[in-house]
């Protein structure tokens, strides 16, 4: 199908895809099958290439628009929104740490061929070990979870060179004997994210494929550390999309099915006339709209630094952006979980039926929002506010 030519067209395309995904999201979640068809839908729509260069058929969109695409897809299906969001981060990873030649090669490869990224990068597990064998490096190890799994065409690996503290990222083809996915992701929510365990055995990469290395030496930039704020900003939009989907779905149910309470003494005819229902939706909507406004502003800020010259980013600016992203995460997780829970009070007892499927929103948001402890995000924001201290770059900040 023809590709959109501007940001609004891409957002409309994303909504078309979301409308398709929404039809059977609950049924697909329960079936818990690898989402090959869903990823092919993203490819056919062109959504996997929106960050790629226009010269190779990509959309070359700014990040603040790309995050809105993640949000739109997540409204319909949080699992597929997560897959797409992680794909965008890993597609940009070569810009975060790669050389100019590596950036050009990887972006042409994935954009021209509509390839989908996954990542075997889980910092809570031990690092993969990397052996230096002259012209090549060899990855070995295991990760207890990795997003993208069997539906990814390309997999990002990360490990540490044996006998050093030097971390190396590399992008490799997923379909090879040395990468074995267990297919064991069976969690409460985000069930279609292919986030199960993976074993890496003797995966060879030419030194030329070690991201950012020249003559086996890495030249660090502050920009390299934007991977975490960028990914956490994606999380914010996954969570916001899930919360928006929950409120939209509950509202539609209430308009059509929720009955008034017959013992309130006011003889109301429909649920939409109930004071507590109107007040409840009003309360939840005001929180959600405020969260969306905050996240939109944060996305503009991080988009600016992601698209600026890499050498221009200072540690201070990077830290300020990380704090803002953390603030958005605090708000949307707390408000999103409230929304995903309270919608049951506003829709009524019959809405708890499994066929209605309102539980998918709480399950998805609750599962992924455990990615790192929220009190530490509040702590980062508090230190910035009280003592003007920015967080040091870590795997989670």
UniProtKB/TrEMBL annotation:
InterPro entries: Acyl-CoA_DH_C, Acyl-CoA_Oxase/DH_mid-dom_sf, AcylCo_DH-like_C, AcylCoA_DH/ox_N, AcylCoA_DH/ox_N_sf, AcylCoA_DH/oxidase_NM_dom_sf. One of its GO terms (molecular function) is monooxygenase activity. Residues 21-103 form the Acyl-CoA dehydrogenase/oxidase N-terminal domain. Keywords: Monooxygenase, Oxidoreductase. Residues 238-371 form the Acyl-CoA dehydrogenase C-terminal domain. PANTHER family: ACYL-COA DEHYDROGENASE, ISOVALERYL-COA DEHYDROGENASE, MITOCHONDRIAL-RELATED. This is Monooxygenase. It comes from Gulosibacter molinativorax.
């Amino acid at each position: 199908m023809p590709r959109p030519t501007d940001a609004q067209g891409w957002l409309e395309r994303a909504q078309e895809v979301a409308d398709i995904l929404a039809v059977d999201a609950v049924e697909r979640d329960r079936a818990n099958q690898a989402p090959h068809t869903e990823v092919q839908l993203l490819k056919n729509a062109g959504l996997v290439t929106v960050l790629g260069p226009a010269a190779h058929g990509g959309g070359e969109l700014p990040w603040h628009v790309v995050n809105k695409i993640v949000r739109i897809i997540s409204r319909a299906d949080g699992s597929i929104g997560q897959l797409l969001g992680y794909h965008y981060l890993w597609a940009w990873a070569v810009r975060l740490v790669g050389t100019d030649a590596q950036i050009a090669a990887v972006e042409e490869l994935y954009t021209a061929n509509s390839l989908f990224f996954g990542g075997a990068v889980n910092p809570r597990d031990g690092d993969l070990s990397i052996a230096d064998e002259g012209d090549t490096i060899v990855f070995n190890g295991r990760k207890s979870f990795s997003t993208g799994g069997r539906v990814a065409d390309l997999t990002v690996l990360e490990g540490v060179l044996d006998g050093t503290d030097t971390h190396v990222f590399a992008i490799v083809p997923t379909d090879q004997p040395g990468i074995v996915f267990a297919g064991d992701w069976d969690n409460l929510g985000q069930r279609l994210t292919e986030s199960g365990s993976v074993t890496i055995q003797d995966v060879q990469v030419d030194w030329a494929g070690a991201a950012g290395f020249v003559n086996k030496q890495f030249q660090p930039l502050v920009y390299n550390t934007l991977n975490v704020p960028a990914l956490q900003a994606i999380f914010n939009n996954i969570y916001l999309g899930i919360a928006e989907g929950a409120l939209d779905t509950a509202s539609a149910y209430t308009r059509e099915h929720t009955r008034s309470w017959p013992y309130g003494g006011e003889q109301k005819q429909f649920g939409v006339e109930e004071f507590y229902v109107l007040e409840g939706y009003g309360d939840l909507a005001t929180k959600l709209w405020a969260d969306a406004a905050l996240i939109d502003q944060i996305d503009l800020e991080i988009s600016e630094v992601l698209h600026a010259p890499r050498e221009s980013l200072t540690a201070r600016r990077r830290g300020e952006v990380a704090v803002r992203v953390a603030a958005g995460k605090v708000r949307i997780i707390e408000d999103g979980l409230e929304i995903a829970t309270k919608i049951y009070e506003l829709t009524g007892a019959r809405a708890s039926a499994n066929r209605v499927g309102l539980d998918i929103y709480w399950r998805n948001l609750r599962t992924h929002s455990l990615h790192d402890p929220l009190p530490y995000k509040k702590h980062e924001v508090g230190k910035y506010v009280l003592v003007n201290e920015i967080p040091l770059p870590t795997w989670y900040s």
